[in-house]
Write a structure and sequence with these properties.
ABC transporter transmembrane region fold; 574 residues; four-stranded antiparallel beta sheet; Rossmann fold
């Protein structure tokens, strides 16, 4: 928790002002019982109405001052806590953006969402409570002890029995609840994961008639979370009755022994009433601390999860001595590259060596799991090669700033990702492009025809994930987004699969004209898509089974020949 306090520093003025106002509020509340005792012992006993009114007016002003201080302290504490939470969320988001895919795989998307939203909310709540209740509790508690002892030191001995009981209960609850709250946050992660998968995969779930299975899966996770929450709430439910029992017994003891001292004439009635008020303040302060002890475990668990994210160093870092003023032309070279995913026993790629040059199309083909997409991920430094080196224009990509490297790449992923917004916003995707450039990119991707038929054209709204578009339409928009960037390197990851043969041919012809001076790497399953490539790389089990042109590979590479014959007949090949 302490590691997160540096994000509270910008709000130190709010914090200091809030604590000062809490002090004013506490002083006013400590002063009120004393005034009440004066009214009883002097005003009422002497039937002095003027004295009662004067002291009553002072009590009213003190109470109003304390109330105003409490309201303003609450406002400032809330401003500090909300700002603290906002900055914390921003820093988590910013730090997560620097993660490589290995870190995303480690935490999981659902967990990162929970940590950024739910866990930060827990920290915010604890911050507000800390500035208002926890800061006030020791002031009220210590002040009330001093005032109570001042009223009657002997009667204060009752507190020596009550306070240790309260402290022991708070400590017991804290020790027992911390592990359960940590478990709750993990179960929230699990439920969010299931819910996210269910919402994203609703079409597949309905197509396979697995709605009931998903309901049961969510029900099980929900029940697991509920049972754990009930377990911790059952533990907490013991807290208030025990506190109330101790407070009531303490009040009974004070009334008993205080009554005897009033009867003996060693204690005045007003002082006894004030003493009871101070004891109530002490008990209330201990109760506030105890409640904080109840809430602190969950906030502590959340803070630990947030710190875990913030202290995770990305495996892929910016180079210490980056190549300066480097203009990327696009020549890509793999030298004996091997790679295995974190936690995997076997490498995905082994001894990969090839060269892709500007003005030429390099195609990659192979069976499922051969490592085709992994090669593209390595070029973009989503992962770093386990061994070997990847060069762009003769410079190791580890020496290039990540931003500069990716600015030079136009990437079309295998699984299309579109964002909520308009068609134009998706094509330009944050870049300052003229409408003419957007339309030009759409024409190259053969998307302008279906866009013109949409109700608002380029201003038509795309729903989340592009749910209101067909697979082919989404692929063409994804291609247009990459083309609009006009990069030096194009990476197409099996992004023509949803296109019919006619549209596929048009798109490839238009892209070929557009990319004549750029390096193009195409991952494909369709042989027809890559037959005209300048260079075809055939992968098998993570190794290169052959490199060359179509005719050469069909003749000399058994793996490539099998792929071709599985898709094309001898007549089509002729």
């Amino acid at each position: 928790m302490a590691k997160l306090l540096k994000w509270l520093k910008p709000y130190k003025n709010y914090v200091a002002s809030s604590l000062l106002l809490v002090f004013v509020q506490s002083v006013s509340e400590l002063y009120l019982p004393n005034l009440m005792a004066d009214i009883v012992d002097t005003g009422i006993l002497n039937q002095d109405v003027g004295y009662i009114l004067r002291k009553g007016l002072i009590m009213l002003l003190v109470a109003l001052g304390g109330t105003a201080a409490a309201i303003l302290a609450g406002y400032l504490a809330s401003r500090a806590a909300m700002g603290f939470g906002r900055d914390l969320r921003e820093n988590i988001f910013k730090h997560v953006q620097s993660f490589s895919l290995a870190e995303f795989d480690k935490f999981g998307t659902a967990s990162l969402i929970t940590r950024t939203v739910n866990d930060v909310n827990q920290i915010q709540m604890m911050t507000v409570m800390g500035l208002r209740m926890v800061a006030r509790a020791p002031l009220m508690g210590i002040g009330s002890v001093i005032m109570a002892v001042n009223k009657d030191a002997r009667l204060s001995m009752v507190l020596l029995i009550a306070v240790p009981f309260l402290a022991g209960i708070a400590y017991f609850l804290h020790r027992k609840s911390v592990p359960i709250f940590e478990d709750i946050q993990k179960k929230i992660d699990r439920m969010n994961l299931i819910l996210r998968e269910n919402l994203r995969g609703v079409r597949v779930i309905r197509a396979f008639n697995r709605a009931e299975y998903e309901k049961n899966r969510f029900k099980e996770a929900n029940r697991d979370l509920t049972e754990t929450s009930i377990r911790v709430n059952r533990l907490m439910s013991l807290f208030m009755p025990l506190i109330s029992l101790i407070i009531n017994f303490t009040i009974i003891a004070i009334l008993w022994f205080g009554g005897l001292r009033v009867e003996q004439g060693t204690l005045q009635v007003g002082d006894l009433m004030a003493f009871i008020q101070y004891v109530m303040h002490i008990m209330f302060s201990l109760m506030m601390v105890s409640i904080a002890f109840v809430m602190f475990p969950r906030a502590y668990a959340s803070a630990s999860r947030i710190v875990d994210v913030l202290e995770t160093e990305p495996e892929i870092k910016e180079p210490e001595n980056p190549v300066e003023l480097y203009e990327i032309k696009g020549t890509i070279e793999f030298k004996n590259v091997a790679f295995k995913y974190p936690g995997s026993q076997e490498p995905v790629l082994r001894d990969i060596s090839f060269r892709a040059e500007p003005g030429k199309v390099t195609a990659i083909i192979g069976g499922t799991g051969a490592g085709k997409t992994t090669i593209l991920n390595l070029i973009m430094r989503f992962y770093d090669a386990t061994s070997g080196s990847i060069l762009i224009d003769g410079v190791d990509i580890k020496r290039l700033p990540q931003g500069k490297l990716r600015d030079a790449i136009g990437y079309v992923p295998q699984k299309v990702v579109l964002f909520s917004g308009t068609v134009e916003e998706n094509i330009r995707f944050g870049k300052d492009l003229d409408p003419e450039e957007v339309e030009r990119a759409a024409q190259i991707a053969q998307a302008s025809e279906f866009i013109s038929k949409m109700e608002d054209g380029y201003n038509s709204v795309i729903s989340q994930g592009g749910k209101n578009l067909s697979g082919g339409q989404k692929q063409r928009l994804s291609i247009a987004r990459a083309v609009a960037k006009r990069p030096k390197i194009y990476l197409f990851d099996d992004c023509f699969s949803a296109l019919d043969f006619k549209t596929d041919a048009k798109v490839r012809a238009a892209i070929k004209r557009e990319t004549k001076d750029s390096t193009v790497i195409v991952v494909a399953q369709r042989v027809a898509t890559i037959m005209d490539a300048d260079q075809i790389i055939v992968l098998k089990d993570g190794r290169i089974a052959g490199i060359g042109k179509h005719k050469e590979l069909f003749k000399n590479c058994q793996e490539y020949r099998e792929i071709v014959l599985s898709q094309l007949s001898e007549e089509e090949l002729a």
